[in-house]
Amino acid sequence: MLDILIVEDEPIILETLSFLLSHEGWTVDSVGHGDEVMGAIRRKRPGVVLLDVMLPGRSGFDVLRALRADPDHADTPVLILTARGQNHDRQLAQDLKADAFITKPFANDALVAGVRQLMTLRAGRARQG
């Protein structure tokens, strides 16, 4: 099982996230197009998804909606990572049951701490399920 699937279309941000998270010891893979995310989740079964909102093809919010509707993957922890930090976006993420929300630019330590919390959440869900 893959630890983290990063869904990000900006190469510099993707490279930063991949380096930061793999340096923490997690296995990391990525997808850069919204239309590819659900297939990647079904194949790779990530422990946590870092999901950008503004993606080509399908928005992160549309992806999150589809993920929560998929009974096999609905409990996958999702961290929304976006440059759009308006209250409306935070509320929509909450309504769609995102587990965490971080705005870009992000502090590396805050991002790592957020992912750690979601890994713990994932482990707790796995024990219950």
Describe the structure.
With 129 residues, the chain is of the alpha/beta class. It has a single domain (4-119), classed as Rossmann fold. The protein is 47% helix and 16% strand. It is built from five helices and five strands, in the order E-H-E-H-E-H-E-H-E-H. It has a five-stranded parallel sheet with strand order 2-1-3-4-5, with helices on both faces. The longest helix has 21 residues, at 108-128. The chain is globular, with a radius of gyration of 13 Å.
Tell me the count of domains: 1
In quaternary terms, these chains amount to single chain
- The total strand number stands at 5
Q: What best-fitting shape do the alpha-carbon axes yield?
A: globular
Low-confidence stretches: none
Average pLDDT number = 95
Task: From the alpha carbons, calculate the radius of gyration and give it in angstroms.
Answer: 13 Å
Give the C-level CATH assignment.
Alpha Beta
- CATH fold group: Rossmann fold
Helix content: 40-55%
Number of helices: 5
Key terms:
alpha/beta, Rossmann fold, 16% strand
TL;DR?
The chain has helices at 11-23, 37-44, 60-69, 87-95, 108-128; strands spanning 4-7, 28-31, 48-51, 78-82, 100-103. The protein has 129 residues and is of the alpha/beta class. The radius of gyration is 13 Å and the shape is globular.
Fold blueprint:
Elements: E1 4-7, H1 11-23, E2 28-31, H2 37-44, E3 48-51, H3 60-69, E4 78-82, H4 87-95, E5 100-103, H5 108-128
Parallel strand pairs: 1-2, 1-3, 3-4, 4-5
